[in-house]
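Subject: complex prediction, re-run

Hi both,

The earlier run crashed halfway through, so I resubmitted it with identical inputs.
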Amino acid sequence: MLIATPLSMTFDAPLQLQSGASIHGYSLSYETYGTLNADKSNAVLVCHALNASHHVAGVYAGQDKSEGWWDNMIGPGKPVNTDKLFVIGVNNLGSCFGSTGPMHTHPDSGKVYGADFPVVTVEDWVNAQARLLDALGIQTLAAVLGGSLGGMQALSWTLQYPDRMRHAVVVASAPNLTAENIAFNEVARRAIVTDPDFHGGHFYEHGVIPKRGLRIARMIGHITYLSDDVMNEKFGRELKEAVLDSASGYRYSTQEVEFQIESYLRYQGDKFAEYFDANTYLLITRALDYFDPAKPFGGDLSKALARATCKFLLVSFTTDWRFSPKRSREVVKALLDNQRDVSYAEIDAPHGHDAFLLDDQRYMGVMRSYFASMARPAEVAA
Amino acid sequence: MLIATPLSMTFDAPLQLQSGASIHGYSLSYETYGTLNADKSNAVLVCHALNASHHVAGVYAGQDKSEGWWDNMIGPGKPVNTDKLFVIGVNNLGSCFGSTGPMHTHPDSGKVYGADFPVVTVEDWVNAQARLLDALGIQTLAAVLGGSLGGMQALSWTLQYPDRMRHAVVVASAPNLTAENIAFNEVARRAIVTDPDFHGGHFYEHGVIPKRGLRIARMIGHITYLSDDVMNEKFGRELKEAVLDSASGYRYSTQEVEFQIESYLRYQGDKFAEYFDANTYLLITRALDYFDPAKPFGGDLSKALARATCKFLLVSFTTDWRFSPKRSREVVKALLDNQRDVSYAEIDAPHGHDAFLLDDQRYMGVMRSYFASMARPAEVAA
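This time it finished cleanly. Structure:
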């Protein structure tokens, strides 16, 4: 069994952010799995999405059910094989899972950042990750890998540090958010910000948490992670507790739980509100909204991706309506316009956006063979 | 110009509801357009969806911009031609637009219903509509017409009163909600119910309105009414106000409006929260959740629709992901299984669920020809 150990590194020098602000005296939490080889050529960076962290694989010693969020994908003998590869998971700035975020104190003022934590972007995260690699003495990555928002970071890596990586693996992602994607983020943010317990983002000092808003945000998110089909299959119109002496079986209540899907969503919302930070939610969804590498090129993604020189694997899932295959195909086309080496797998899976975290034989097979070829000595040495 | 006059009728006798409760001393608001012919054979009942009322067509005298919600469809010379047909719009029980609802007082106690307003179903609404027709002396309808939730009422009419109608026109509707549909309703309801100003549904006596929750509910609803495509076309990633001296143009704020789509949604939410009743929102979304005519038949829609004897027109729109064409096709198939006379038009329109309220040449053409054939004397007399 792979035992994971959380590590932390502090950076004193200011990191210039895209917004014009900067941050200094911050820490990044990270974990590593496998062994860095002698020429430091087998490192794979894993970037995380909204509700995840540096704890990508393995378990914590003595802690049951502490598997990393991509433990099915990464580990000894797994598709991303840590017997061959040195995998690094890093928690992003602004998170609530270890790295410096809104819940932490500003190193100068000693006050909790709260809503004053600087707005961070995908590009900022990538810059912070590059600094971590500097500190670890890793100049060139075998690959950057990410799903969803993590895939955006992998894509941004190819543009910000094209010489520091050989492969980008971009799963269930998109070159930017659509208006509908932004709309869902905005509703979630409004639910949080208009919760009376939010206090303009300075709720910590009031000893409260905007749980109502966080619950709504999570419920909305969860709907968009699943496909209509898988929701129908898992829950359909099943009732939580049918009323046996009624012909319809319904309880006829507008506020009580009636259908299983309601019970499931409420549970997901309640759980999330217990551990996720409201300011982090705002920051991460905003980073999603802002990401748009084609923007400085008048929306021309082919021009934007001309800087990328590494090899690419893109993967999408047919029932993912949050980041649909169409969006991955846009990236593939833009890379082909630049005559880049790109592989693309469109996996016919029923699970919607969540599919990127689940076991699917074809998906796992594609990932396994791509990373296996990457780990071959001939190429690693190239 | 068609001048509309709102009417009201009060019903003293109790109406038995599906939940087991009953309601008495209630009023229904309605409007009529055109002239009922001598043999009372040209009446068309129009059923409304979530955010609509009895004011279906025409304008109110002296009131600018007071067009009824389906004024493009219904009126003199329009697809549902009031020169030939006698059209009745009725506001449903539990609404906040005129008919008795949660904001009104219980006739016995004199207290505002609030959260104690009985849970009403599509079937209850249809029974109340049938009583109104009794009072108007109309035994048999030429047609029942409705879109979305209104289409569910039209469908339910064919099962509850198969002998009282010759045609059902069911637009952008479904034989029941999917788990995803229920999920969106539930998030909206949770946003309302957990708003501290909701006070368990008795907010009237506290002199407040749960506007935060209503805003969120409306924003969620609005996203599901539009297609991804039309949102991208109308708003895309346009910024509300680009920062001209920034390379990105972004303001870098998590709480301010940044994108046009955010501005649009906030506006829609604010507007809705000014006029829509929170308890009505709960009631109407619950009626949507509950509707499932196949339920007493073990989910077999073909068996359920065997009772329906009228002729049918079903219309769906390709980009409607709330009530997708697939759902209309389920109804068509079930009717064909019963060898019913059914016409079906699947309109290739970009506007999502909202398409049923918009002008589209093919859609309007289909409706016009269907209602024209219905109004022909030969058939009216048949």
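The first strand of chain A starts at residue 3 and ends at 4.

- K.
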